[in-house]
Structure formats: structure tokens, C-alpha cells
Amino acid sequence: ASAADEALVRGFGAEMFVPRDVHLADAVRALVPGGVDGAVDAALLAAAALDAVRGGGAFAAVNGGLAVPVPLRGISVRNAWIRADAAQLAALADLVDEGRLTLRVADTLPLAEARKAHARLESGGLRGRLVLLP
After folding, report:
1. Is the predicted pLDDT of residue 6 greater than 70, yes or no?
2. Which residues, if any, are the signal sequence (predicted)?
């Protein structure tokens, strides 16, 4: 996230904040010298996030996976696969409706503009998520 979003990110519960224009692993290791016990990469940071994890730690890639051919410093690397679950989605929708789960939507687009949405994602700098509507 950008430095301008620090309050927002901390409001989501983050104890530490590293703005996107700073080298992630160096900044994390300045705060946690041995590296963090684990990291979840939902922003396609891959190696930058992996380098912040201590030897023997754990790393999960959420967006698209991460190919690591051999164990790196003994780090357990897993890809998180998301599966549809109507009951869980309904529970999350209830949390949103109750104001207990905050979403950050950058824009909504018709499904017919999916190509445009992907181009925007690839260009980076979005402040929130894109939502495709049927």
C-alpha cells in the first residue's frame, strides 16, 4: 500500500506497515531482524515477500501461486487455493452488511469489460479491488 494508506492498513489490524515504494524484505528485517515466522502474499510480491521470512518459516501465495523448485532456507512454501463455498460467502456477506468487515472497492465494471479490468490490475497502483458485475 502507499504511505498515504498507512492509517487504513493499521485500521485493518496491521501491527507493522511497509509502504510499497520501500524494499519489503529489508524493511521487514529492520523491524524483525531474524525475519518473520510466516507471510501470506496476496499481492504478487513473490520473492520480495519470501525474503522477509526467517529460515524454517512458512509462506503462502494466494494470487496465482509461486513456483519454488526446492525448499529455500527450510521455508515451507504453499499455494493457497480458493474454492467456492456458498455458506462461507454468505457469512462474509453478513459481516460486510454488519460493518464488521470492510471492503475497499476501487471500481465496478460490467463483466463485458473483464479485459479492461485485467489491464488495470496489471498496470498496478489500484487502491482497492475491481468488482465485475454481470
Report:
1. yes
2. none
Q: What are phi and psi of 16, to 5 degrees?
A: -125, 155
Do both 16 and 58 map to the same domain? yes
27 and 46 share a domain? yes
Sequence letter at residue 13: G
Say what the pLDDT of residue 123 is.
87
Cβ density class 92-122: b for 16+ within 10 Å, e for less: eeeeeeeeeeeeeeeeeeeeebeeebeebee
User: By C-alpha distance, which of 85, 41, 37 is closest to 65?
Assistant: 41
CATH number, position 50: 3.40.50.720
- For residues 116 and 101, what is the distance between their CA atoms, to the nearest angstrom? 28
Tell whether the model's pLDDT for residue 64 goes beyond 80.
no
pTM of the model: 0.67
